[in-house]
Amino acid sequence: MRRPITALVAAGLLAACAGTPTAPPVPPEPPPPPRAEAGTARLAHANLTAASATLASGRITLRADPAGVRLAGEIGGLSSHGAHVLQVHAHGDCSAIDASSAGPYFDASGRGALDGGSDRIVANARGVARVDQLVRDAVLGGGAANDIAGRSLVVLGSTAGATGARIACGVITIAPDGASQGKE
Over 70: is that where the pLDDT of 2 sits? Predict the structure, then answer.
């Protein structure tokens, strides 16, 4: 008598397990927005402020260029004669003391390599670097996958013990219509 009851209970348990609903499938991530040949803005700025307890700061002007976006300006408070790196990062957020809130490097070219705007800048004896570099394949404004407006510029340091540390950060902000188009 016990065996038929045990078999009946076991069959009931198996049937209950078979009827357990599975978790709903996770929808796939939407594809990134398409890349653009040109953005909706011609001019933007990034005011770089110190990060990681440094004195680095500067102002960079960004201009639309047929090959991407041209960066020009000066950054001070750097290591004298030091080589540094100026990069576009994914998030327009410089709120963290070490600028980690700017997120990872952003590859505007879409090639998956550090060639979409990662560039070396070298400070002079006074610790000032003049910037003139091109972020290839980037655009300003419009929300395309290669749009760098609203992202951030980050300076990576070269001081002893701080190689690669984020020492300055600034959000890329579209200039208002009618802003100066002159060279700085």
Answer: no
Tell me the CB-side half-sphere exposure of residue 74, using CA atoms within 13 A: 8
Measure the N-to-C terminal CA separation of the chain; round to a whole number of Å: 95
Phi, psi (5° rounding) for residue 135? Answer: -95, 100
Instruction: Please answer whether residues 90 and 117 qualify as being in contact, where contact means their C-beta atoms are separated by less than 8 angstroms.
Output: no
**Cα–Cα–Cα angle for 49, 51, 55, nearest 5°?**
70
Q: Give the span between the Cα atoms of 1 and 57, in whole angstroms.
A: 86
- Please give the domain boundaries of the chain with CATH numbers for all domains: 43-174 (2.60.40.200)
The Cα–Cα gap between 160 and 54 comes to 13
Least confident residue range of 50-54, 59-63, 88-92, 152-156: 50-54
- DSSP bridge partners of 121: 84
Alpha-carbon span 46 to 146, nearest angstrom: 17
Q: What are phi and psi of 14, to 5 degrees?
A: -60, -40
